[in-house]
Amino acid sequence: MTSLEPFEVYAIRYACVERKASENFLGGDPHEAGMPMDYFVWLAKSDSKTWVIDTGFNQQAADKRGREFLRCPTEGLKLLGVDATNVEDVIITHLHYDHVGNFDLFPQAQFHLQDSEMAYATGRYMTNPFFAHAFEVDEVVAMVRNVYGGRVSFYDGDVELAPNISLHHVGGHTKGLQVVRLWTQKGWMVLASDANHYAANMNEGKPFPIVVDVAQMIDGWDKMKRLADDPALIIPGHDPAVMSHFQAPSPELEGIAVRLDA
Predict the structure, then answer these.
(1) Which of 124, 143, 190, 212 could make a disulfide contact with 228, Cβ separation 3.0–4.6 Å?
(2) CA neighbor of 51 nearest in space, from 180, 192, 186, 218
(3) Domain membership flag for residue 3
(4) Using CA atoms, how far apart are residues 58 and 160, in angstroms rounded to an integer?
(5) What's the CA gap between 198 and 204, in Å, rounded?
(6) Which of these, 226, 228, 193, 223, lies nearest to 208 by C-alpha position?
(7) Is 51 helix (H, G, I), strand (E, B) or coil?
(8) Count of other CB atoms within 10 angstroms of residue 171
(9) Are 255 and 248 within 8 A, CB to CB?
(10) In what order do the strands lie in the sheet with 165-169?
């Protein structure tokens, strides 16, 4: 019996886009049916600590990239009792535009990031449009400014932030992608973010096509299976099925947020 303080964990849906299945798997069949994508940020709350995981994007980014913007992620957080202006800690799984926008709406936050992700987002690979496309330069520059302001905590690999939460470098999708392991009433849960866009990526062995290192992405699936107490506790980062597999914490949050640990 563990004495660890459990987290309540929520997925907050803030945007979506229509896609073909072939866009979500390496070697996908272009004749397959549609396979939409949802966009989430995550919230972990215990009796003594609150963590926000990723910050999403805004209406301007949605217009630029042809996404349907449903609401600001901070609105979903507020409905769960969290004021973004008071949030003290934000984990950034990686620096792609859909995970690190809205940085200005968290003015008190310390950001938690892998060394290798900052090096990747500011280094030689960004001269290649294939790698650079999913980044927004202004957001990367803003994070650099936060570094100079003392607001970024860097990690080189796996790290325990507290006995009930840890970060684990998996790479693959980006050089510095990290996943979050949380203790919950169901046991150890892993927020996969883009280590596993859809459950089918991992379950069917079909990597997502935005990738730096395919072998590392596949190794990341195995790592997450070791970290979670059950494969069902590995939460994919963009799968619309999350909204149907888990329940909203209240009728008012139907279609907006679901509780992952209940």
Answers:
(1) 190
(2) 180
(3) no
(4) 31
(5) 10
(6) 193
(7) strand
(8) 24
(9) yes
(10) 159-162, 165-169, 178-184, 187-193, 234-236
Residue pair 172/213 in contact (Cβ under 8 Å)? The answer is yes
Which residue range forms the structural domain that includes residue 149? 8-259
Which DSSP symbol is given to 251?
A: G
Query: Is 2 among the domain residues?
Result: no
Instruction: Report angle CA 203, 9, 83 to the nearest 5 degrees.
Output: 135
Amino acid occupying residue 116: S
Neighbours of 80 (CB within 10 A): 18
Answer for the pair 201, 236: CB distance below 8 angstroms, yes or no. Answer: yes
pLDDT in tens, the chain (262 residues): 568 999 999 999 999 999 988 889 987 665 466 899 999 999 999 999 999 999 999 999 999 999 999 999 999 999 999 999 999 999 999 999 999 999 999 999 999 999 999 999 999 999 999 999 999 999 999 999 999 999 999 999 999 999 999 999 999 999 999 999 999 999 999 999 999 999 999 999 999 999 999 999 999 999 999 999 999 999 999 999 999 999 999 999 999 999 999 9
The token pair at 234 is 């590995």
3-class secondary-structure state, position 236: strand
Buried b or exposed e, range 1-40, using 16+ CB within 10 angstroms:
eeeeebbbbbbbbbbbbeeebbbbbeeeeeeeeebebbbb
Amino acid at site 202:
M
The SS3 of residue 28 is coil
**In contact, 123 and 82? CB cutoff 8 Å:** no
CATH of the domain at 131: 3.60.15.10
Distance CA 22, CA 35 (A): 9
pTM (2 decimals)?
A: 0.96
CA distances from 134 to 61, 105, 143, 154, 156 (A): 11, 21, 16, 22, 23
Residue identified by tokens 């620096």 is 95
The count of domains in the chain is 1
